[in-house]
Each structure stands twice: as structure tokens, then as C-alpha cells.
Amino acid sequence: MTYDDQKKTITTRRLLLRLFQTSDAEAVTKLCNNYNIYKNTLYLPYPYVKQDALSWMEHHLENFNANKSYEFAVTDKETGELYGAIALSHNQAFHHGEIAYWIGEEYWGHGYATEAAQAILQFAFKEKQYHKVFARYFQSNPASGRVLQKLGMKQEGILKEHVIKENRYEDLVYYGIIHS
User: Fold this and answer.
1) pTM for this model (two decimals)
2) What is the pLDDT of residue 88?
């Protein structure tokens, strides 16, 4: 993982994580207007329209510069193709943050979420000096849990029937890792 503070980018073996641009709105809309992504995420609306993408991106740079949160487009390092998004929140008082991500369904199974999450974890610990990083996922989405396990995160608990998605209660599984 290589972080470029000037460009606000993270480079990995295959990926370039960069800030979203308004020109990404069409691609974000195409990827997010997908029921299978919607059902596995807490906050994405469905159907997903271009205005949703533009509203979501509106404060990314401001939040990044204020060290509130870091939202990155997950793109192919060579072609620039957009695969998805990964974010890291920053609780400055407690020196920790949450990782959240989505990858377009056509790109599932290629390890992009894991590669991006490994880079974000290094960014959190090395660049931002976090003490802890955590993540949560719907228990009905075990693939997301496998990404967290590959990062070395450990399950910390399950919040039973903690949220409602599509008129159904969902368990939230929490994972975390402390910087060693």
C-alpha cells in the first residue's frame, strides 16, 4: 500500500483508491442500482438514481480534509474502471473508525473488497494512527464476514435483530482489530 497525501490516493497491487468525482456519478448509479447490493447494505437506497450518487459524494472532500471520514472510489489501477467504494470513519476522541464497503456485483469474487480493505486498514494504522478499526455486516451476508476475517479481524459480537431491512430484523455482526 502506498499513500499519496497530495493526491489523496492509495495504490495497491491492482487498485487505485481515490476520491470520487462528479464524473463518477453515472458509474456509481449503474453499480448501486442493484437489488443484491441494496439488500446487503444498511444505508443505500433502492432504486438508486444519479442524484443519490451526487448527494452522497457532495461532502467527501470536506470530510476527508476535516479528518471526519475517508471515502474512496475502488478503481482498477491500469484502466481506471470503477469497481466500488470503501470508506473509513474517524472517531478522533477514541482513535478508532469503521470500515464500510461495497463492490459492484459484476466484480464480486475477484478479491477487490479484501485488497481495498487491507489498504484502508494500513492507512488507518500507519497514516492516521488509529488504535482500532471495526466493521459490521448483516449476518445474512457471510461473504462480507470473510473479507473481515482475511484482514485478521476478530468477531466481537452479534447485535441480535438490531436493524430493520425490508421489514425484517437483521442481526449485525461486529468485527474489530487493534493496532499492534
Assistant:
1) 0.96
2) 98
What gap in Å lies between CA 111 and CA 132, rounded to an integer? 23
Number of other CB atoms surrounding residue 103 within 10 Å: 24
Q: How would you classify the pairing of strands 82-89 and 96-103?
A: antiparallel
Reported as a single tens digit per residue, the pLDDT across 43-89 is 999 999 999 999 999 999 999 999 999 999 999 999 999 999 999 99
Strands, DSSP E only, in 20-67? none
When the pLDDT of each residue in the chain is averaged and rounded to a whole number, the result is 97
Cβ within 8 Å of residue 151, ≥6 positions away = 114, 117, 118, 121, 177
Q: Is 97 exposed, middle or buried (0-12, 13-18, 19+ CB in 10 A)?
A: buried
Instruction: Return the number of other C-beta atoms located less than 10 Å from residue 163's C-beta.
Output: 13
Grid cell in block for residue 47:
432504486
110-139 confidence digits (pLDDT tens): 999 999 999 999 999 999 999 999 999 999
CA distance 160 to 130: 28
User: What is the residue type of 46?
Assistant: Y
Element of type H or E holding 164: strand 154-165
Angle of helix 25-32 relative to helix 50-57, nearest 10 degrees, comes to 120
